[in-house]
Amino acid sequence: MVALMNIMSMSYCAEKFTWKRKPKPDELPHIGTPSDIAWATWNRVGANVAGIKYLIVTQVINSDSREIFKSALRTLSPPQSEFKLWPGHEFSMDDNAGLAILGSPVGRWAGYFLVQHKDKLGGNRFISKVRVFLPPGASMPYLVFYVDPTPAQHAIAEDMVARKPEAEELAVTGRADSMASTRTVKKSDDGRNVVREHVVRDKF
């Protein structure tokens, strides 16, 4: 498994904690995204690189991500409003709520991790579900993404493409100043591999 703690962008950290100004792109390291850092660590110390099963995010401090999680909780039956101790709440990637969590600011790295390194991971890997929970004594939620070694079936892939706009609507709940759009750029003949373009516009 790979676990990331307190995910923040390099640009944000440099501006807030180090230089107290917005950094220029050429001032930042080339390897700095959460997915890059996670892979560099896993590729170096993982005993079985292709055996990745869990991708974990601890102490989610990003407020936009937590709002997305809360929106997901409200889709449960009955609707929930608070994060729970382990095992917390589980969301399938067949559901809009699960897709929204995966696409959140602290969740999307998990998808990049699998897509960008599938040759080293032994082929296609996909996230089948995600669990949102609180550890004992914690105030911030944690995530566990479950990695499945089997590609999604054709019907599931088609259904995910069809329902993507609904997932985006959930993902921006509570952000009246946000706009999101998506389109399918390319899809394999069997429907298992899909390339999508996602555009999110924020007003600052």
Automatic annotation (TrEMBL):
Top-level taxon of origin: Eukaryota
Name under which the protein is recorded: Uncharacterized protein
